[in-house]
Design a protein that fits this description.
2 strands; elongated; two-stranded antiparallel ribbon; single chain; 6 helices; mainly alpha
């Protein structure tokens, strides 16, 4: 059994090395922009891919659980809206105990697993690649400094920012800009100001 696990592990390591080699080839043109631009572009690509994955991939079980949850939630709201408040509370409690709680937890965990697969896993894989491809030794050999950039004003020389921190900050910046763009760019059919 140990030999089988060792063989599997060596194959996983070999596949990871091949994937890193291909990523190095694909990222090579981005290095012309320096580590700041390259990591920012990789963050933008990561956010775009996660949004695409999330839009394209949902399990049938997740869709079924969402419909079932919405169905039972609508029934619960109807029960609460009944004329007799106490009877409505008892009906809602029965619905919660009978169906809604189980459906909600199944729906929640299926959504969590879906988000791990479509969002968290790609971000972690890209973070692992950036941590390896832009480690201080490689930054020093390629760009002449062991950090991505320095923030002036903190300490005598400023505070150095590493590749992984810059990747995380890039993701946050991209998500904030994405939200602002969605806020300010409205779809033509949803303009309530027309008179």
């Amino acid at each position: 059994m140990d030999e089988l696990l060792d063989i599997m592990w060596f194959k996983i390591v070999a596949a990871a090395e091949v994937a890193v080699g291909w990523m190095d080839v694909l990222v090579l043109p981005l290095n012309l922009m320096g580590p700041v631009g390259a990591i920012l572009i990789l963050g933008l690509i990561t956010v775009g891919l996660t949004k695409l994955f999330r839009r394209l991939y949902t399990t049938e079980r997740y869709q079924r659980l969402k419909k079932e949850y919405e169905h039972w939630m609508a029934i619960r709201k109807e029960a609460m809206a009944a004329g007799d408040r106490e009877k409505g509370k008892r009906l809602a409690r029965n619905i919660d105990q009978a169906k809604l709680n189980k459906v909600y937890y199944d729906y929640f965990f299926e959504g969590l697993l879906n988000n791990i697969l479509t969002t968290i896993l790609p971000i972690l894989l890209m973070a692992a690649y950036i941590n390896e491809a832009y480690n201080p030794d490689k930054l020093l050999s390629q760009f002449g400094r062991p950090y991505v950039f320095r923030i002036p004003g903190f300490g005598s020389d400023g505070s150095p920012i590493g590749s992984l921190l810059w990747f995380v900050l890039s993701l946050i910046l991209i998500h904030v800009l994405w939200a602002l763009c969605r806020l300010f760019i409205k779809k033509p059919g949803k303009n309530p100001a027309k008179a």
